[in-house]
Structure formats: structure tokens, C-alpha cells
Design goal:
By secondary structure, the chain is of the alpha/beta class. 34% of the residues lie in helices and 19% in strands. It is built from five helices and five strands, in the order αβαβαβαββα. The longest helix is centred in the N-terminal third of the chain and has 19 residues. It is globular.
Amino acid sequence: MIAKLLGLGLTVLLLSSCAANVPAETNVQPEPVSTTGAPEGVYANAAGYISYETYSASPEKYSASNVVLFYNAYWCSTCKAARDGFESGLGEIPEDLTIVLVDFDENTEMRKKYDVIVQHTFVQIDSAGNELQRWYGSTTVAEIEEKIS
């Protein structure tokens, strides 16, 4: 009986110490970037920074723009750094650049189409949807501009 109580006490102690060392914000699942099911585009009002759903509804609207697909996942810390960088630099996005957020987890057909195997991949496409180039690691609008120049 004493061994069972000691075992139970040790289990409670271990569980409580684990919970105490985890910051509260890590226990909350972050909101995904995808606007699937959301009212018309969370990013639709930010010229040059749009969701894939917004882009795919009218791709012809962006035919005169340098379209860059940004494959990202809400759980990816590098993707979050990039999203934060783009969102803080919305005013820096030139009129001839459109950054399209493609949810890495949700848009598997788009991943297959451009053979994207890791999140935080950027794919520049032409007006017909053909890949022009790809790269990884950009976190600011300026870095994207350097790649497409």
C-alpha cells in the first residue's frame, strides 16, 4: 500500500513539475495561416500579400505582377518569422509583387504541382502558372525583391 502511495505521489510530482516548466502560451495551438473557411481573405485587404484562396479565385488579376508562392505552415518557426516580417513590411511591398500564402499542410495538390517538399519554400511563377525559380529562407520583402530582380 505504501509503495502504491509513493508511486502515485511521484507521478503527481513529475506531472506537476512538467506543467510548471511549460510556458502557458505553448499550450495553446496557434491559429493556422490558411484562410480556408474564413471570411473573404484575412490578407485580402493587404495589397500584395494574399492567401492562396484569394489568388486562386482570380489569378488573372495578378498577371502583371511578380507572383511568389510562399509555402508555409503555422507550426514552422521560420515560416512565422517570415510572416511576421512580411506583415510588418506590408507598406514596402511594391505594386508589381504579390506574395501568395500557400498553406503547406492544406494545399497538397499545390505542393505536388511544384514539387515542394519542405515548408518555407518560395516559388516564383509566371502568369500561366509556370515555375520561374524557387528558393528558401527569405524573411523580408527586401529579400524577396532581391531574388526576383
